[in-house]
Design brief:
heterodimer; A: mainly alpha; B: 57% helix; elongated
Chain lengths: 210, 296
C-alpha cells in the first residue's frame, strides 16, 4: 500500500476550502486590474501546474513549446483581466486552465496531423516523478508508479486529460467541468467511472510486478 | 521555486475526499485508513505519478516585467537566465516579459502568435525609451537577425534542405518559401504605401485564404522547386525588404494612421512580425529537428 508522500512543494489542492480560495483569488484579480503586480501570487500558485499540464499536451521534444505556451497563458490572462468575471463554478483556477486548454488546442491545430496526438508513453521521463521518501523513510515502489503510467497510456486522451486536471492541476470536479465544458456531476461521473475501471487493473498489474 | 501561497499540506484523503469518499479518512499520521483500499491505492499512485513538476527557469523569468513587484516577492530559481541579450537583437523569451499591449489587435492580423505579439509589444516599449524607429535602426535589426538565421540554415546545409519533418512535414526548403511569402507581402505593402500614400490589405489569391490553407498552398507550390531557386528568391526578397525599409520615411514606420492601424500598433511592428520574429517562430522547430538528428 502506498504511503503518504511528503507535503507537496507545488501549489495546493485545498479542495476543502475552495470558497475561501475563490474569495482570496477574486480579490487578487480585482487588485491586478489596477496593478498587474498583484497577479504575481496567482502566477506563482499556478505556473507549475499549468506548465505540467501543457507538457502532457505538447509531448516530447517540445519542452520549449510547453514553456512558451505557459507564458502565453499568463500573457493572455493578463490581457483578459478586464473581462474576467468570477462566477459560480468558474474559479480563477478553472479560468486559467481553460485558457491553457485553449492554448494547447490551438497549438495542436498548428501541428501536422501526426504530431497532434501525443501518446502518453511519449511524455518525457522528467515528468515521471521519482519515488520520494515518505516521512517514515519508506519508498513508494517505482513499479507502482510505472504501473500507473501504463494504465494512463491505455486511456484515450480525453479521459486522461480529466485525470490530469484532477491530479496534476488539482482542480475540483466543478472546476474540471468548467474547463472541459460539462457539469460538475458529469465530471464526477467521468472520473469515478474511470477510476473504478482502473483500480482492478491497477491492483492486478501491481501484484504481477516482481 | 516560489513558496506555496495557500495551505499546502493536505493528506491524500483530504485532497481526494471527492474521489475516495468519506470512508477514506486519515489516521493522525495522515495515512488513509478506510474506504476502498484498492481505490485508495490507485488514487495514491495517480497522485504521485501525475504530480505537477516545476516549470523551467525561463518560465519564471518571463512576465517578470509586468509582474515586477509580485515576482520580486518570490524565490527566483538560481539558474534563471533573465538577460543574455545581444545589443540590437531581441531575445524572444526576454521579450515575453513585455506584457500584452496591442496583443489582441496583433492576434487578429493572422500570422502571429501571442508570444510574437508580446515580443512586438516589448519592442514598442523599447521604442518609448529610444525614440521613434528609424529605417536605419530597423534595417540593422533585420540584418543582424538575418545573419543569425542564415547561420542556422548553414548548420543544416544545402544537402538536407529537402528532408521532410523539420516543421511538421515541411522540409526546410518549404519553410523558407513560407517565410519568403510573408516577407514579400510586406515588401508589396511598403511599396504600395510609398507609391499611393495608402494601404489596403490584399483580398485575392492566397491572401484570401485561411492561414492554414494559405500556408499549405505555399508549401505545396515550393515542393517541386529546386532548393537553389527557393534560396535565391528568399535572398532577393530580403534585399527588397531591406531596401524598402531603408527608403521608408520615419513617419511611415511609426505612424499607425498611415496604415489605418490602432494608435498603439506602429507599422514597423508589422515588418518585424513578418520578418525576423517569424524566423524565430520556426527556429525552435529547426533546432529540435537538428537535435533529433543528434546535433545540438
Amino acid at each position: 500500500m502506498p504511503r503518504e508522500r511528503n507535503p507537496r512543494a507545488i501549489g495546493p489542492a485545498d479542495v476543502s476550502s475552495s470558497d475561501t480560495r475563490d474569495d482570496d483569488e477574486a480579490a487578487l484579480i480585482q487588485a491586478a486590474r489596477r496593478d498587474p503586480a498583484a497577479f504575481g501570487p496567482l502566477y506563482a500558485r499556478y505556473v507549475d501546474r499549468i506548465y505540467t499540464y501543457l507538457r502532457t499536451r505538447t509531448g516530447p521534444a517540445r519542452a520549449d513549446d510547453a514553456a512558451d505556451l505557459t507564458q502565453q497563458v499568463f500573457v493572455r490572462a493578463l490581457d483578459a483581466l478586464p473581462r474576467y468575471e468570477l462566477r459560480a463554478g468558474v474559479s480563477v483556477a478553472a479560468w486559467l486552465f481553460r485558457i491553457a486548454r485553449n492554448a494547447a488546442t490551438d497549438w495542436q491545430r498548428r501541428q501536422r496531423p501526426a504530431l497532434r496526438i501525443v501518446p502518453w508513453e511519449a511524455v518525457p521521463e522528467e515528468l515521471h516523478p521519482p519515488a520520494p521518501e515518505t516521512a517514515d523513510g519508506d519508498m513508494l515502489r517505482r513499479d507502482e508508479i510505472a504501473q500507473a503510467h501504463r494504465l494512463l497510456a491505455a486511456l484515450d486522451a480525453q479521459t486522461r486529460e480529466v485525470l490530469i486536471l484532477r491530479f496534476t492541476a488539482q482542480l475540483t470536479l466543478a472546476e474540471i467541468g468548467a474547463v472541459i465544458g460539462v457539469s460538475e456531476d458529469a465530471a464526477r461521473k467521468r472520473i469515478t467511472r474511470t477510476l473504478h475501471a482502473l483500480k482492478e487493473r491497477y491492483h492486478a498489474g501491481a501484484d504481477d510486478t516482481p | 521555486m516560489p513558496a506555496p501561497t495557500t495551505p499546502p499540506d493536505q493528506t491524500l484523503s483530504e485532497r481526494y475526499a471527492d474521489l475516495i469518499g468519506a470512508a477514506g479518512v486519515a489516521d493522525p499520521a495522515g495515512h488513509a485508513t478506510g474506504g476502498d483500499p484498492a481505490l485508495i491505492r490507485l488514487v495514491a499512485a495517480l497522485d504521485l505519478a501525475l504530480q505537477a513538476r516545476p516549470a523551467p527557469p525561463e518560465v519564471y523569468a518571463a512576465l517578470s516585467r509586468p509582474l515586477h513587484e509580485g515576482i520580486n516577492t518570490m524565490d527566483t530559481p538560481p539558474s534563471a537566465n533573465t538577460t543574455a541579450r545581444v545589443p540590437g537583437t531581441l531575445s524572444r523569451r526576454d521579450a515575453l516579459k513585455a506584457g500584452a499591449a496591442s496583443m489582441t489587435f496583433l492576434l487578429r492580423l493572422g500570422n502571429i502568435g501571442p508570444e510574437l505579439a508580446a515580443e512586438l509589444s516589448h519592442l514598442a516599449q523599447e521604442q518609448a525609451r529610444q525614440g521613434p524607429m528609424t529605417g536605419a535602426r530597423l534595417v540593422g535589426i533585420l540584418q543582424t537577425e538575418r545573419a543569425r538565421w542564415n547561420a542556422l540554415l548553414a548548420q543544416v546545409g544545402l544537402d538536407r534542405m529537402e528532408e521532410p519533418g523539420v516543421e511538421g512535414e515541411w522540409s526546410l526548403k518549404e519553410l523558407i518559401a513560407h517565410l519568403t511569402w510573408y516577407e514579400r507581402a510586406v515588401v508589396a505593402g511598403a511599396r504600395q504605401v510609398m507609391s499611393t500614400g495608402t494601404f489596403s490589405r490584399p483580398q485575392s489569391g492566397l491572401h484570401a485564404l485561411e492561414m492554414d490553407e494559405r500556408n499549405a498552398r505555399i508549401a505545396a507550390q515550393s515542393r517541386a522547386r529546386p532548393v537553389g531557386d527557393v534560396l535565391a528568391e528568399a535572398e532577393q526578397v530580403f534585399s527588397q525588404l531591406v531596401a524598402a525599409i531603408a527608403a521608408s520615411p520615419e513617419d511611415l514606420l511609426n505612424d499607425p494612421k498611415r496604415m489605418g492601424l490602432p494608435d498603439d500598433v506602429v507599422p514597423w511592428m508589422l515588418v518585424a512580425n513578418n520578418a525576423y520574429a517569424h524566423y524565430r517562430e520556426h527556429e525552435q522547430s529547426i533546432r529540435a529537428w537538428l537535435a533529433r538528428q543528434g546535433e545540438v
